[in-house]
């Protein structure tokens, strides 16, 4: 499980260091990662989707693809593979926990020299810092009742009992 928010700088080669504490929470080894384009349904501007990148370890990614193949009909599968998976990039994670992010993915998410790296349960997200801040501070976030950890623990206890 991944959690936490970190600001990182990309080096001159476009390499980004994934924070140690994020990888220490991983369920699988991170020798290779898959980077994909992501969008949020929350629009920060009326004409543009909110864009960021997602990184999955190879084992989790392969599990997601198996789930998609099993759950989607042939047309949905084809569209999924052409629109979501076609732009996926396999990345090597080096000994310093760095990945080299391809230029087209960086351009897609408007990431230049700075990035926000955040853990989201089973994957890592990479954001342009200004986009991330606007997303977190967007008016819709004030309307969402976010449970605290106590609420989640109480729900879980009720399920067990």
Q: Could you describe the 3D structure shown?
A:
The protein is α+β, with helices and mostly antiparallel strands and 161 residues long. The protein has one domain: Chemotaxis protein chec (3-Layer(aba) Sandwich). It is 36% helix and 32% strand. The protein has a 6-stranded antiparallel sheet. A hairpin with a 2-residue loop joins strand 7 and strand 8. It is globular, with a radius of gyration of 17 Å. The model has no long low-confidence stretch (mean pLDDT 85).
What descriptive keywords fit this protein?
single chain, 161 residues, alpha+beta, Chemotaxis protein chec
Helix content: 25-40%
What Rg is obtained from the alpha carbons, in whole angstroms? 17 Å
Say what the CATH topology is.
Answer: Chemotaxis protein chec
What is the 3D form?
A: globular
Tell me the strand order in the biggest sheet.
1-7-8-4-3-5
Order of helices and strands: EEHEEHHEEHEEHH
Number of strands: 8
Identify the CATH homologous superfamily.
Answer: Transcriptional regulator MraZ domain
CATH architecture: 3-Layer(aba) Sandwich
What fraction of residues sit in β-strands?
Answer: 25-35%
In terms of structural class, how would the helical and strand content be classed?
Answer: alpha+beta
Total domain units = 1
Q: Uncertain segments of ≥5 residues (pLDDT<50)?
A: none
Major sheet attributes: 6 strands, antiparallel
Topology, element by element:
Layout (H helix, E strand, L loop, with lengths): L4 E5 L5 E3 L2 H5 L7 E14 L2 E10 H14 L2 H12 L3 E4 L5 E3 L2 H6 L5 E7 L2 E5 L1 H9 L11 H12 L1
């Amino acid at each position: 499980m991944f959690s936490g928010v970190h600001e990182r700088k990309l080096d001159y080669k476009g390499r980004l260091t994934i924070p140690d504490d994020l990888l220490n929470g991983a369920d699988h080894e991170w020798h290779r990662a898959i980077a994909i384009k992501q969008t949020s349904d929350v629009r920060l501007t009326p004409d543009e989707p909110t864009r960021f990148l997602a990184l999955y370890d190879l084992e989790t990614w392969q599990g997601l693809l198996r789930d998609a193949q099993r759950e989607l009909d042939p047309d949905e599968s084809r569209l999924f593979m052409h629109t979501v998976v076609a732009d996926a990039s396999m990345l090597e994670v080096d000994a310093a926990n760095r990945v080299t992010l391809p230029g087209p993915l960086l351009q897609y998410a408007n990431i230049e020299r700075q990035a926000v790296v955040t853990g989201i349960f089973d994957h890592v997200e990479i954001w342009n810092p200004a986009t991330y801040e606007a997303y977190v501070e967007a008016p819709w976030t004030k309307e969402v009742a976010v449970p605290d950890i106590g609420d989640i623990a109480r729900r879980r206890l009720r399920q067990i009992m």
